[in-house]
Amino acid sequence: xxxxxxxxxxxxxxxxxxxxxxRNYLCDGNRFENTAEHCWHLALMVMTxxxxxxxxxxxLKTILMLLIHDLVEIDAGDTYCYDSTGNETKAKREEAxxxxxxxxxxxxxxxxYHQLWREFEEMExxxxxxxxxxxxxxxxxxxxxxxxxxxQKNHISESQVLERNLPINDGSAVLWNYAKFLIKSSVTxxxxxx
Length: 194
Hints:
By secondary structure, the chain is mostly helical. It contains eleven helices and two strands; from the N terminus they run H-E-E-H-H-H-H-H-H-H-H-H-H. It has a single domain (2-189), classed as Hypothetical protein af1432, CATH 1.10.3210.
């Protein structure tokens, strides 16, 4: 029963992810999304777009990686990707969060979750590269769909968006070409500063 109790306690704890509000609006622009919604959407993106990965990927492993990659935000918060100050301490805050949150699980599951989370962060395997590609692509799509709402509010430039999204190419040349198209057309439409 101890193992089961640990698993239930972990699942109750990660319910808090639904309260972590991100800086991206939903595609309809009516509200910000929460991090749990973000993770679900990325898992669905992998199911839908896996054929466009640069290398063959283990779809289930990639989905599992995305379902847990942002659990650290329960403690560390959602650091806005263009916040240079917040990003200075992000890795340290997230490492401490991973240690605490995953320690709620039985030891064997702690190891699996930690390994998947680290793999995502290191972006060295085909699965982690594709996971990072969709993790960056969806906010880009959301910004385009909302007329650049978050970009304009934070005075984000084309060069910042290009730099942030460059790792998409490591996971999928197809998604990267689409991302570049979205960025260029956003500049043309005036929803992203040149």
